[in-house]
Amino acid sequence: MKIAVDLIMFDLDGTLADTGPDLADGVNYTRAHFKLEALPNALVYAHVGYGVEHLLKHSLPSQQPFQEVMRVFLDRYEKHLLDKTVLYPSVRGALDCFRDKRRVVVTNKMHRLADAIIRGLGVENQFDAILGGDSVSDKKPHPALLNEVLQRFQVSPRRALMVGDGDTDVEAGKRAGVVTCGVTYGLGNAKDLRAAQPDFLIDDLFQLSDYFC
After folding, report:
1. Where are the alpha helices (DSSP H) in 47-155?
2. Judging by DSSP bridges, how do beta strands 17-18 and 86-87 pair with one another?
3. How far apart are CA 169 and CA 145, in angstroms?
4. What is the per-residue pLDDT across 40-95, written as a single tens digit (0 to 9) for each?
5. CATH code assigned at 133
6. 152 and 69 in one domain?
7. Do residues 56 and 30 touch, judged by C-beta distance below 8 A?
8. For a designed S-S bond to 167, which of 17, 84, 114, 192 qualifies (C-beta 3.0 to 4.6 A apart)?
């Protein structure tokens, strides 16, 4: 029996869009600026999903001046965030299946960056709102972002779903009291995702329609 929901919250990086290559390029551009050798993309991906501050602090040595690191990275990334970034194959179909539901992007990425990506990929009309890591006081796994969405749209947690590729998404969902669904195809660590014990686990976003209505 399918679970009825009124609201679906989607993570962005690794869930809706494969943003990894552009993020890795931005990190390695920043490392080159500071005369550091490039990191393999996989090492960069391991730190995606926690916000830009976390990404940069774990991708560059701590002795680098952090404000300058942020400036260099953001200057580069904002100009190139759609060079290689694409929607995952089933995203448009999955969103269309739930077109009569509230659909919201809930990401730890800065709001302006998330907004630029969603608009650049041509799916801005598929969402009722886009919330970034700087939209509220705390990032996932804190439930603040999810609680803000629940309050804004006046939806009970029991009628809401959080979908993401990371353990942070699952933890935030559990703390907010919503149903959680992990996706295995993204940038997140699959072992950590499973250890977080989401209520559902899918390999393709189109499978959402198998479990929810």
Report:
1. 52-57, 66-80, 91-97, 111-120, 144-153
2. antiparallel
3. 11
4. 999 999 999 999 999 999 999 988 899 999 999 999 999 999 999 999 999 999 99
5. 3.40.50.1000
6. no
7. yes
8. 192
The alpha carbon of residue 138 and the mean position of all alpha carbons in its chain are separated, in whole angstroms, by: 15
Strand partners, 14: none
Residue 142 tokens read as 């804190």
The single-letter DSSP state of residue 101 is: S
Quick check: is 165 catalytic? no
Q: Where are the alpha helices (DSSP H) in 108-179?
A: 111-120, 144-153, 167-176
Domain that residue 65 falls in? 20-80
Q: Find out whether 165 and 198 touch, Cβ atoms under 8 Å.
A: no
Query: Which candidate in 11, 13, 22, 167 is catalytic?
Result: 11
pLDDT tens-digit readout, 153-211: 999 999 999 999 999 999 999 999 999 999 999 999 999 999 999 999 999 999 999 99
Smallest CA-to-CA distance from 145 within 122, 175, 124 is with: 175
